[in-house]
Amino acid sequence: MGSPSKENESKGFFAAMSSIFTNAVHRSVNGLLGYEGVEVINPEGGKEDAEEEAHRGRWKQEERDGYWKMMQKYIGSDVTSMVTLPVIIFEPMTMLQKMAELMEYSYLLDQADESEDPYMRLVYATSWAISVYFAYQRTWKPFNPILGETYEVANHGGITFLAEQVSHHPPMSAGHAENEHFTYDVTSKLKTKFLGNSVDVYPVGRTRVTLKRDGVILDLVPPPTKVNNLIFGRTWIDSPGEMIMTNLTTGDKAVLYFQPCGWFGAGRYEVDGYIYNSSEEPKILMTGKWNESMSYQPCDSEGEPLPNTELKEVWHVADVPQNDKFQYTYFAHKLNSFDTAPRRLLASDSRLRPDRYALEMGDLSKAGAEKSSLEERQRAEKRTREEKGHKFIPRWFDLTEEETTTPWGDLEIYQYNGKYTDHRAAANNSSGSIDDFDVKAIEFNPWQFGNLATE
C-alpha cells in the first residue's frame, strides 16, 4: 500500500480511531462509490476503505494494536472522559470553543427577535440551531476542558459569550451569550456510548434562548449524533432523529427530522419538518440540508404548500476555506484567534492552553507533553482539594436546585450568575489584574496557562 497523498493528510479523530483497529480486526466488504461529495463509502463498512483511513501518516504501525487492546474493553461504555487519547487525533480547539460555534449565524436570532410573526420566529430560530451542524461534521476530537477553564467571545455581532467547565466528572459545561436581541443559556453534559465500530453521542443538556423584545423563551432539544465506521469504512458523522424547539411562552413548536444516511449517501444532510401552533396544526413547512441551506413555505392544515406561495431561503452556509487542515470554517479560525477576544482576557481562557496552542503551531510533541502535564496538574489539584475537604465552585455559573429530564438522562442546571458582566466592566476600565491578560498590550505567551480549579 502506497504512502498517503497530500489530500488525505487532514482527517480527524474518528478517522484516526479507525486506524487503531485495522490490524486487529479482519473483515472484507467491498466499498461503494458515493456521490455529491458525500464522505460515506459504505454505511456498513469496508476494510479496503478503512486501510486508506489508517495510512494517513498520523499513526505509527506499532501503536495500533496497543490502542485496540485499550479500547475494546470500553465497548458499551461512556468514553466521554474516561479514556486518555493521543494528541494526534485532536483539533486545536476545546469543547468550550466548539460550543461558541453556534454563534456564527447569530443574526438569525436577531431576526427572530425582530419578527412579529410567532411562526417565523421559530423558522429563524430553528435555522440558527441547524446552522452549526455544518461545523459539527468535523471528525477531529476537541480537547476536554480543564476544570474551571473558560472561553470568551466578543467582537461578533454585538455578542458577549462566556463558557466555563463547571464539572470534570461528569464533564459538564455551562454557557451564556447575550446581545441586544437575545440571551442564550446552556448546560451541557455530553454522554457517549462506544459500540466498537461507532460511537453514539447523546446531547444531554438544556438550551434556552430568550428573545428580549417580547420575552419569548425558546427551548431546544437536538437530535443525537452517531459517529460511523470507526473500524471499517470511511469515518463520517450523522445526526438522525428529531430536533424540537418549543416556544415555552405560546406553546408553538418546531419539529424537524434529520434524515438518516443510507447507501450511496442517500438522505444524508436532509432536514424536513413543520412549525406547529399550540393546537399542533402545521403552519409553515421547512426543508433543506444542514450542510447547505434551509428554506420555508406557508402550508395548510394538511401540511401542503399554500397556493401562490413559494419556498424562500432563510439560511445559507457561508463560504469556507479550501483544503483546510482541520476543515475549519472562517469563523472557527476566528474563535482560535484574538480577533474575537475581549481586550483583557481571563487567564483561564481556552486560547491560552499550551497544548492547544502547540497543536495549532504543528508541534505534536510539545502538544502531547503539555496535554499530559495539564491533566496531571488537574489530578493533583483534585487530590489536594479533597484532602482539604474543599469543593470546587465555578466562578461564573451557579448550580441551581433545578433538575430537568432529557431523553438521555436527568440534568442538573447551572445558571449564569451575572458576575462576568461586572468583571468585564471593571476590566475595561482598569489597567488589568493578575488573572487577566491584556491581549492588545502584551506579547502572547501561551505557557502561562495556570492552575484553574480554585476553591
UniProtKB/TrEMBL annotation:
Q: Which PANTHER family match?
A: OXYSTEROL-BINDING PROTEIN 8, OXYSTEROL-BINDING PROTEIN-RELATED
Entry GO CC = cytosol; membrane
Output this protein's name.
Oxysterol-binding protein
Example of a GO MF term: sterol binding
Q: Does the keyword Glycosyltransferase apply?
A: no
Q: Which family does it belong to?
A: Belongs to the OSBP family.
Pfam families, per the entry: Oxysterol_BP
Q: Which UniProt keywords apply?
A: Lipid transport, Lipid-binding, Transport
